[in-house]
Design a protein that fits this description.
The protein is built from 3 helices and 6 strands; from the N terminus they run E-H-E-E-H-E-H-E-E. Bound molecules: tetrahydrodeoxyuridine. Tetrahydrodeoxyuridine binds next to helix 2.
Amino acid sequence: MKKFDITVTVEALAASDLSDSESRLVDLARQATYRSYAPYSHFCVGAAILLDNGEVVTGANQENVAYPSGTCAERSACYYAGATYPDARFVAIAIASRGTDGEPTTQPCAPCGACRQALLEYEMRAGHDVAVLLVGSDTVYRLPSVKALLPLAFTEF
Ligand code: THU
């Protein structure tokens, strides 16, 4: 029997460690949490995606009384980006959240499995790694790529 390990390096950064471009993306993700529609969970998530044409596209979770019909922030952002700028490639994504108390979460918000799968497709279309910034109130986790969030991903059939 063979075994192998899959390791993911996560950098835990303070605000001062971020580049200007990263800080801007983090701010835009935080602002996007205020455009969330979350009357059921009261958990507000915002996502901001930097594209290679310089545009930043944002999204926020949109819930529905028929719960599964709602959409996470990450997918609202990546589908909006794909539908608005079909030729642009993703460069980086930041994801931020506010908890049921309305305050930014201390813990960085990590995307759900479905969003990881959706984002991975855009990373593959980009043909290069897409940096991921998971935003907590005091700490930002930086991962090098979406695939780092989804080891052994389903990619082709
Ligand atoms: N949510 C997101 O928008 N992104 C995530 O990565 C995790 C969860 C949303 C879905 C739902 O509207 C609320 O957060 C509570 O799960």
